[in-house]
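User: Working on a comparison across species. This one is F-box domain-containing protein from Arthrobotrys oligospora. Can you predict its structure so I can line it up against the others?
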Amino acid sequence: MSRHQDRRPPAPQEKATSLISLFPTKFMKPGTPRILSPLEHLPTDIAYIVVQNLAKGDLGNLARCSSVCHDFTLLLRLRRIILTSDGVRAFRDGGKYEMYRKYVRCVRFPDPSEWDPDPVWNEDEEIRTYRDPMIPALRTYTSSLDYFPDITELHISYKIPAAAEGNAFVAVYASISKQPFYQNLRKLEFLVEKTQDMACYWTGKELISEYFRLGKDDREFLGNQILEEEDVNIAIRRLVVPAPSLKSAAISVTGIARPWEVLWMGKQNGLFYYYPFFQAPNLVELVVNVKGSDGPEGSRSNSRSSLDMTQLKELNNQTLR
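Assistant: Here's the predicted structure for F-box domain-containing protein from Arthrobotrys oligospora:
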């Protein structure tokens, strides 16, 4: 047999069998003539290496070229996902991607700016109360993390009325710290945007009564009452569990105390956001992004800080005094 014959590309049927063994591929009907692309002439493992090194945008473009390319790249594209309502439905029990949950390694919540559809008014109530989707969406995205037991990177972002900031963080952290993936996380980010007057029922004298007008599921998620900062500190300290695999972390929150303000000025605003990282012994760096307390263009300037383990330990010791 000649060297040329040795290197002949595999027959379409042979290639299809090879791909089916590794990828969820849909092929054309038997007997339908089709010219193989150069990528398909490669051995499956080599083709996979080529595709694996494509940039995210190029991977998406390749997936749109054909049904074969779509399915060939599916597992790679599912390694990093942004949760959406459609995505949650796809991965839930009985969803089209249910069998691929174990391949997901990185999950991102949608950008908070995408959580702002038109207000929904309850016409049956005597007082028309603003209803927004922030809390139900946060509850849905947080609970959907149950689907992904093997993720190693998690980016949590949400928008929350300032009055419920502590309740939201306790609810979110209580959920993720119980997940099987938590101790295997290598990267964790919290991006929280606090709103002051976006939803009228979160401000003013009727704050407490309006809180109890939330839906039953939302109240169960956030807790029975609005928590003061000291209550949040106590709750998070009780919830914190070790994160031995964590290497990189970030906190981006409007108006929290900067690290040096905690260390040298004794400010405690939002200190509870730091607590989960005090028990991350292998953390290399914690990046803290702070927006002005009056919003991105408020009187308190934006800043970015980076803490190494020595500084983080000093911050932890300061909070214990």
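For your comparison, note: The chain has two domains: 12-77, 79-320.

User: Helpful, thanks.
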